[in-house]
Amino acid sequence: MKTYSIALIPGDGIGKDVTEAAWQVLQAAAKRSGLGLEGTRFPWSCAYYRETGAMMPPDGVETLRKFDAIYLGAVGWPAEVPDSVSLHGLLLPIRKAFAQYADIRPHRLLPGVQGPLRSEGFDILCIRENTEGEYSGAGGRIHSGTANEVAVETAIFTRAGVERIIRFGFEQARARRKKLASVTKSNAQKYSMVFWDEVTREVAREYPDVEVSHYHIDAMAARMVMAPESLDVIVASNLFGDILTDLGAAVQGGLGFAPSANINPDRSAPSMFEPVHGSAPDIAHLGIANPIAAIWSGAMMFEHLGEAQAARDVMRAIEATTARGIGTIAGKDKTETITRAVLAALN
Ligand code: NAD
Ligand code: IPM
Ligand code: MN
C-alpha cells in the first residue's frame, strides 16, 4: 500500500478543531483510494511557546523536511503571544525555508453557498508570492520615544523571486481560461512594483496564448467585488495576495470556505496545506468553526501528492454537503455536524 507521511501542525484556536475534523475526512478518502496516510502530530503553537520559549524546536524545520507534506491548522494567539513572535517563529519560516514560493488560493462558490454578493459565476485562482516582498522581515526601528522615532519595513523583490512566481502564474493560466491579471501598485511605488510590471511583460512574451492585464491593487479589490466573473488567474505579491485572498474568501461566502496550498513547485522540499483563515479566537472553543476550508486544503494536498482520485472524492463530498445546505451559513452548524456530513457523503 502506498503510504504518505504527513506532518500535522494543528496550531492554535480553531486550527486545532478544523485540523482534527479534516484529518478524519482525509483518512477516510485515503482508505477509499487504497492509500495510507500516516500523521505525525507536532504541538507547535503559542501554548508550546509559553512552555518552551520557542514556537518550535531549533531543529523544527529539519524535522519537517522528511515528510511528504505538512498539514497546518492556524497559528496565533495574540492575547498571550504577540503575532510578530508567533508567526515569525513558525508559519513564515516554514514557507521560506522550504521555498514554498507559490501560494495557491482558489475562490469559487461551492454549491448551495450564498456569497454576500453573488450566487454563482466566478472561478478565480489567486497565486500569491509567498517567500519575499513585503514579508522579507528586513527593516528596523529606533526606539527613541521621541517625535522623531522612525520604523522601516523594507520590501525585497528579487528577479529570481518575481520571475518564478509570474511564470508559475502563466503556467496556471495556460491550464485554465488563459487570462492572467498581475496586481501591483506601480503608480505609487516606484521601484519594486515597476520592476514587477517589467518582469511580467518579459515573461508574457513566452506565453503569447495568455491574455495579460495589469491592475493596481485598489482597482483589483473593487473588481473582485463588482466583476469577479471577469477574472481567471491573479498573480500578486505576498502582502497584496494576502489581502486579496481574504477578500476572495468573503466573496465566496466567508473565511470558512477558502483553502490554500503553499507549494514548492520544484519539489525540493515538502509543501504545506492550510486554510486561508487564522485561529479565530472569537469562536475558538465554541465548536462552530467551519472545517470546509481545511478539508478543501486537504484535497489540494492529495492533488499535489498525485492522488487525483482522492482529491476528487474529497471535493465531491464537500460539494454534496454544501448542496444540502450543511455548513453554508456561518455558525448554524457545528464543526462536528459538517464533518459527519462530509464523511457520510464520502462513503
Ligand atoms: P481569522 O481568520 O482568525 O478570523 C477572522 C474572522 O473570520 C473571525 O471573525 C473568525 O471567527 C472568522 N473565521 C475564521 N475562520 C473561520 C472558520 N473556519 N469558520 C467560521 N468563521 C471563521 O483572522 P484574525 O482574527 O485576524 O486572526 C486571528 C489569529 O490568527 C491571529 O493571531 C492571526 O495572526 C492568526 N492568523 C493565522 C493564520 C495562519 O496560521 N495561516 C492566518 C490568518 C491569521
Ligand atoms: C495567511 C495569514 C498569514 C500571512 C499571517 C498569519 C502571517 O494571514 O496565511 O494568509 O499573512 O501570510
Ligand atoms: Mn491572510
Would you kindly provide a written description of the structure presented here, covering whatever features stand out?
The protein has 347 residues and is of the alpha/beta class. The chain has 2 domains: 1-101 and 256-347, Isopropylmalate Dehydrogenase (3-Layer(aba) Sandwich); 116-251, Isopropylmalate Dehydrogenase. Helix content is 41%, strand content 22%. The chain is built from 12 helices and 12 strands. A 10-stranded mixed β-sheet has the order 2-1-3-12-11-4-5-10-8-9, with helices on both faces. A two-stranded antiparallel sheet has the order 6-7. Strand 11 and strand 12 form a beta hairpin. Helix 1 (14-32) crosses helix 10 and helix 11 (308-323) packs across helix 12. The longest helix is centred in the N-terminal third of the chain and has 19 residues, at 14-32. It is globular and about 55 Å long. The chain starts with a strand and ends with a helix. 48% of the residues are buried. The chain binds nicotinamide-adenine-dinucleotide, 3-isopropylmalic acid (IPM) and manganese (II) ion. Residues 14, 18, 74-76, 78, 83, 87, 91, 255-256, 274, 277-283, 289-290, 293, 330 line the site of nicotinamide-adenine-dinucleotide.
